[in-house]
Design goal:
single chain, minor pseudopilin epsh fold, about 50% helix, binds manganese (III) ion
Amino acid sequence: MAFTLPDLPYSFDALEPHIDAKTMEIHHDKHHAAYVKKLNEAVEGTEFADMDIIELLKNIDKLPDDKRQAVINHGGGHVNHTLFWELMSSDGGGEPTGAIAEAVNSKFGSFKDFKEQLSNAAATRFGSGWAWLIVNSDGELEIISTANQDSPLMDNKKPILGLDVWEHAYYLKYQNKRPEYVEAFFNVINWKKVEELFNEAKQ
Ligand code: MN3
């Protein structure tokens, strides 16, 4: 079965004014759709076409040389964006609660320090890429950034929060002001989803 573009879990304008409707429409309907299309083209007719996308990326080393980079780019693009949509919500923002809040405070000192470090990872990622909060193989929280559409899954890291800092994610509304977009993202983070992913990652 071919990989498919998931529906956005909300309307294009649900994240206004923080993330504008036009950006969401182009980002989902054009950019994410293109990753899915090109991923399908790359694996068509191979055993990899039927794999779960997460398993596919975890097994990226097993792909033939002539397919690997296309799957890193477009499979990464597909899995990163599928997660990204779920990490935002019209009633998101604020600070986390529960187990994830405790883990953030214990690892980073405070929510404020965590926010500063994630924002810094987003601001300093040169060119296109992502800033992430991940659970590493020791079960510890860590802030990292990746280039292009590289997924933390390829590195045996479980992403629980991700921020797309490609210009296509913010340029229409924020132009060159990436830090303003990062600040706006904090107003829509779906902490319930982050906590759910955190609990799964710890198992
Ligand atoms: Mn994107």
